[in-house]
Please model this.
Amino acid sequence: MMKRVLLTVLLSTLAMMSHAQDSQTAFNFLRLPVSAHAAALGGDNITLADDDASLVFHNPALLNNVSDRTLGLNMMTYMQGSVTGSASYSQAVGERGTWGVQGRFISYGEMKETTYDNQQTGTFSAKDFAVGGTFAYGLTEHINGGITAKMVASYIGHYNSIAAAVDLGLNYYNPDSEWSIAAVARNLGGQLTAYEDDFERMPLDLQLGVTKRLIGSPLRFSATLVRLNDWQYGIGKHLVLGADLMLSDQFYVAAGYNAMRASEMKITAGDEESSHGAALSLGAGMTLERLSLHVAYGKYHVSSSSLMINFSYIL
Model:
């Protein structure tokens, strides 16, 4: 019964999401990567069937691959004066389920408060938060489903906005063939309160992805289609590509290319356009008996590069 209900909810919502259209959105910090491994593979990856606690932020179904009683921590530098971080905890439920809790934040630092004629009257800070809970369940031997329910809040000086949203995910993984296929609907929900009653859409994101490791080879390739609910871009702009070089069972290096980021962060100077390397990302990681560490480099703002560090520990 549990399998049928969860599968029906997931598939129905994914179908509805396929007809949604993006417009002006709030809480866009939810688009930033949380997993350093996913960040290294282009910033969006929903098919890594690894024991990695941070992947729950990208696909809730992947929580079922995480070891029991795992604590995860993450920190990433963003644009100057800003920093973002997250924390998560997961625990097994019976033989086929896993629950988890997680939170993330971004602080934009302190800014000047001025009048319309540019007279400074003080300073203010801006920050965003999201906290949620996840449940993942093994629907079949090779298919996991997951759902994350979360509350999101944004504070800019004396103003604030609050929203409720869910992430839904499915993942098929066959360890014999090393195929992993997934579908995710992220940030499905809406604002409960808005800045001055100006309600905006959530940053909805419908994603499809595939990962395949070449049998007998240290190479693993990933392809992810992102923001499939927003067709103002050509199909090529929705593609994220990544590759892992598995040096051993404990170590990997990774690289990725994100066409959407390259387009959105393109700068025009005279007759020349450049994405200043924004599409490219790199990373590496190691997994020991109870400890995992992942690092990644990427660009998520035109003003600076970002360094991300993930740490997880099995209690």
Q: What stands out?
A: The two ends are 32 Å apart (CA to CA). Residues 2-17 form the longest helix (16 residues).
